[in-house]
Every structure is written in structure tokens, then in C-alpha cells.
Amino acid sequence: MSSGGHGVTRSKRDLPPMHYTLKIESFSLLLKTKVEKYESDVFEAGGYTWRLCLYPNGNTKGKGKGFVSLYLQIENTSNLAHRWKVTTEFKLFVFDQINDKYLTVRESDASVKSFHEKKTEQGFDQLLSLKTFNDASNGYLFNDCCVFGAEIFVIKPTGKWELLSMVKKPANGSLTWKIKDFSKLDRKSYLSKAFTAGGRSWRIDVSPEGNGDGKGNSLSVFLELIDGDELPPQKTVWAEYKLRVLDQRHGKHVEEKMSCWYTSSSHTLGFPKFMPLGDLREVSKGYVRSDTLIVEAEILTLSVSKLFS
């Protein structure tokens, strides 16, 4: 259906229409021809061919009685694919020649309009009332001359889309790491083997003598997103997980929970002060047994992003 007077926004601007302008001189002589509908020449916008359709005395087959009616019509549709559809946002214009402003008419909610085989024309039954248009003091019909225009933005789907899923307890989302000969470790940090969850690779990072705020006083434990430094700018990965050190004697494990976004600049996250070194080294507490420390990582929730085209 063509738009009537409801749901239409009218405003004025300095810029002329981007795609097409129709200027009519000696407008009164055009009316004497008793033309019901005037069709402009064709023009191109957004890869398609269009024309303006003007009803100087209103489209009485619609709701245009007492108004100027103006529409946008798509052309050369025989060259388009079967069951074609062209989705647009468009604006139509009338030039105020006194104030050098363009009256811009569009849908109030800036909604898109689709052109297809059964709807090749869209526009406004009630572009402007004839009373307002014919009053020379308003500048729309001045010295028997008037100017109309069109601006069209064609919305072309790229065919590419993204699916973001928040996955609870992803498959293979945990790792148990037995660190043997723990008392003999002398490097700053150690990395577990990798495990894959949510299509990405992860590993545990342990600093036996602490790292950052935990240096010299705590065991530091982190979960690293492998190749996280290669994430595209603005790309993030959400992870909620638990890190734990097993109590091999009493079953009173030390466990911490983390929820965070991984980025290219922050892809090793966890706890610099996971547990005090004093507790870790206390034999009776059972965290190190037979010179073996057992560390676990368990991913609870993970964001998984997939691209389709």
C-alpha cells in the first residue's frame, strides 16, 4: 500500500537529493493537459533503475485527493532474477524555492520498503496538500515552477552472518595436569598440554614461585587462550571457569572461579595469588604428594562464534 498522511515525517534540509531531481517549468500548462500522472526519465541508484511518478492533482485511486502524490517506481524488472526483491530506505523531496530548502518526506520510523513483482511502486499519496503546494508564499510552486527529487538507499544483504552461542559445559572442556618432580622445578612458569573446547585451544599456566602480586608468596595459576594474541581487533571470547589444586590427602581442594572476556591483549587470565606457598609446602595438607602437584581447569561456560556465508 502507498503511504497516506499517517506515519510520515517531514523536515527541511539544505542538501539537494542525492540521486535525482525533476524540475517542472510552466507547471500550469502541464495541468491544462489534464495529465493524471507524469513519469520522469529513468535514473540509476544502488545498482537498479528507477523513475519518479508524479500525480499533480493527487492519486484519487489511493488517498491522494486534495494532495500532490509522488512515488518511486522500479524499472527494467525483466532483467532481474525470478521472484526478485529489492529492499530500500528512500526519501522524496519538494524544493522550497524561497528559503532554498528541501522538504524531505519519509516514513516516520525509517522503515524499509520492499519492491517486488507485485509491488513496483512505493511512495506517498499525501506528499503535500494542494492548498500548501499552490500557495506561492510557501515556495513550492513559485513563478509557475516546482522541483521534486528522490534519494534511495538499497539494502543489499552480504550473505554473511554470525552465530554467537553461550555454551555451558563445552565438550572436552576440562584438563587434569599432574606436575611431577614439583620440588625440582626452577623455571618462572610451566605450561600444560593443550586441550580444545569451543573450537579454541587452552592450557594451564602455573608459576611455582608466584607471578605478579603473588611473586615470592603464592602459587600463581592461570588459564591461557592459546594464540589469543592473534584475535582480530575488538574480537572477544567469554569464559567462565574453575581452577583448582587437588588436596591428595583430605580431598579439601583449593578452588577459584573466574568469569572474564579474553582479548588479543589479555589472553592469559587467572590468579596471581591462587594459594599461599606456605600451605602448598605443608606436607600434612596434602597438596604435593610423592613430589607431584595436581592442577585442574574446568570450563563452565564459553562463548562460541561461528561465521557463515
From TrEMBL:
Stored Pfam families: MATH_2
Signal peptide residues on this chain, from the entry's feature table: none
Cross-referenced InterPro entries: MATH/TRAF_dom, TRAF-like
PROSITE patterns: MATH
Residue stretches making up the MATH domain: 17-152, 172-299
SUPFAM superfamilies per the UniProt record, alphabetical: TRAF domain-like
CDD domains found in the cross-reference section: MATH
Cited PANTHER family: MATH DOMAIN-CONTAINING PROTEIN (PTHR46162:SF48), TRAF-LIKE FAMILY PROTEIN (PTHR46162)
Protein name in UniProt: MATH domain-containing protein
Organism this protein belongs to: Populus deltoides (Eastern poplar)
